[in-house]
Amino acid sequence: MKKQEILQNYFGHSSFRPLQEEVVDAIVAGEDVLMILPTGGGKSLCYQLPTLLMEGVTVVISPLLALMHDQVVALRANGIAAAMLSSMQDMEESREIEQQLRAGEIKLLYVAPERLKNSYFFNLLHELPLNFFVVDEAHCVSEWGHEFREDYRKLSLLKETFATTPIAAFTATATHAVEQDIASQLQLETPKRVRGSLFRENLMIGVQHRIKDGRAQLMSFLGAHEGESGIIYTLSRKSTEAIAGYLRSRGVEARAYHAGLPTEEKNSTFADFVADRVQIVVATIAFGMGIDKSNIRFVVHMTLPKTLENFYQEIGRAGRDGLEAETLLLFSAADIVQQKSFIDDLPESPYKAHAYNKLEQMVRFANSEACRHQAIASYFDDRIEACGTRCDNCSMPESSKIDITDAARKLLSAIYRTQQRFGLHYVIDVLRGSREQRILENGHDALSVYGIGETYSKAQWLTIGDRLLELGAVTIGEFKVYCLTPSGTEILKGSKKVDLKEERLSIRKTVKKKEDFSADYDTERFEKLRLLRTEMAQAQGVPPYIIFSDKTLKDMSVKLPQSKEAMLEVHGIGEVKYERYGEQFLVLLRELSI
Ligand code: ADP
Ligand code: ZN
User: Domain 203-395 carries which CATH code?
Assistant: First the structure.
């Protein structure tokens, strides 16, 4: 049979897509190949088809069991002899597959990279008529990529052991540096390099500054995607559940997915999503790699991803069928601080600087007012025209900026006059003339800036604070204290202007529900907790509220958490706070609960 017939008969496509045929031909000619093509571009066909034109069996190395499984099922459904060897098969099945392999009854064998450590498997490979190897998700071999996998390092063994068997490597994302690294790690011999354009025309990309927790923005986005399938990415396990719960409370069916859930639940959520039984999954990035679902219509990021590679891979899961899909990234300056602190905690290594650099590029992308598609392409060393209509920046080119110099100066002045010793919320409360006790105790109601900022809502002030942070006019120090930079000082003195996209200030204000813990808390326990807080604050030389707010202590006095997990459910306690102060409070809480 000829290429064209196989394409039609086995795959049901009438013609090749751009670049596919080139790769098929190179593989059939016995060349090494390195193909970079965006998700949904049709990479699988590039190796699944040639093996049908050739003698022998193709070994496909792929990092994900679930993906392999789906591929094998799909191939078999098309009448192509495929199998996988992994921990999913029992002894008997494995033996059967081995027999079929020896009898030449299998054309495509999928394996995980760990397999290559197994000498039994290696010997088996030696006895088979291999036509070529496939390395899927090849960026995983590079430490300079974003998903380096230790097991992929072993893939250098392929050329060392099977010197005459060609290798075809595939990935959706690789900068030139990573591409180079893949070729050298896999020891490819002058491979045929095929690079598709990264431009995913069917993706409408949008980025917005997150207003508060972003839920109002999320709801309005989902309103335009009713009944459609999509993924919502968020950073922590806790927030996947919180957001899924919130959506359900608003009548939107959604499931949470994160690595901490029981395997059964994860598998069933995954399966239900793929089978369209559940439309929305709120997940940590543990979800979706290699997912073989072509009708994902939207992807939302509730927080900033750590690299553009991650971002591009994750939004790449939308619209693999080539139909209209939309992506939304919500981020705030606080995300940047958090991502930075993750990197701060990494052990010293050359990659640390690399990680900061990648984060910086991600931030620049998010803040950029240039074409999103163009910015992504250029990050991957690809040059394309501005999309014109397929991203938020292009479709609102005249997005009017407004001058916020006056407001910025008020905020900077308030930071300065409170001695650069407080967080943004506090400073804004001063500006807005709050009667909060802490402010009165500190005598900040006597400052000239007190109450001069009532024209803006708290949310709007937070946005203005974000803008100053982006512009490098302020920095966040320890305990989230805001400080002025030299550039901030210039603005304050009036020698520099500040502007901002108008829509950032005009987005519908979310009505803040006043959470009132004061009604039902345990005063006695609260006092004890407060005493501990005072002691700790004195010992550490910080104001008590830096440790935990009253609200937190009140909530704690009711919930009486006894474990880290329970502690993280308390108002205002995240991982970082827990790490710093959690244990000491747990000791007291255990006493209090007796
Ligand atoms: P990738 O692995 O690059 O992410 P896939 O191989 O999963 O992409 O292909 C994405 C989609 O494109 C699949 O639904 C596939 O059936 C379809 N496809 C691939 N090649 C062609 C073709 N030549 N014509 C039409 N559709 C194709
Ligand atoms: Zn654009």
Answer: 3.40.50.300
Do domains 3-195 and 203-395 share one topology? The answer is: yes
CA-wise closest residue to 281 among 254, 303, 262, 261: 254
> Burial of 330 by CB count in 10 Å (0-12 exposed, 13-18 middle, 19+ buried)?
buried
Q: How far apart are CA 27 and CA 29, in angstroms?
A: 5
Q: Is residue 47 in contact with ligand 1, taking CB distance under 6 Å?
A: no
pTM score of the predicted model: 0.59
- State in Å: Cα 63 to ligand 1 middle: 19
Q: Which CATH superfamily is domain 3-195 in?
A: P-loop containing nucleotide triphosphate hydrolases (3.40.50.300)
Nearest to 507 by CA among 204, 298, 209: 209
Of 174, 127, 194, residue with least CA distance to 307: 174
Tell me how far the alpha carbon of residue 53 lies from the centroid of ligand 1, in angstroms: 19
Cα 504 to Cα 91, 131, 456: the distances in Å are 59, 56, 13
Confirm or reject: Cβ of 166 under 6 Å from ligand 1.
no
Whether the CB of 45 sits within 6 Å of ligand 1 = yes
**The most confident of 111-115, 117-121, 163-167, 581-585, by mean pLDDT:** 163-167
Q: What is the CATH number of domain 523-592?
A: 1.10.150.80
The preferred substitution site among 3, 7, 9, 13 for testing ligand 1, maximizing ligand atoms within 8 Å of CB, is: 13
What would the pLDDT profile of 350-399 be if each residue is shown by its tens digit?
778 888 888 988 988 998 777 899 989 888 877 888 898 999 988 875 55
List the residue whose alpha carbon is closest to atom 12 of ligand 1: 42
Closest ligand 1 atom to Cα of 294: 14
pLDDT band of 590, cuts 50, 70, 90: confident
Q: How confident is the model at residue 520 (pLDDT cuts 50, 70, 90)?
A: low
Residue for token pair 């050298």 = 184
What is the distance between the alpha carbons of residues 37 and 171, in angstroms, rounded to a whole number? 6
Q: Is the shortest distance between the CB of 43 and ligand 1 below 6 Å?
A: yes
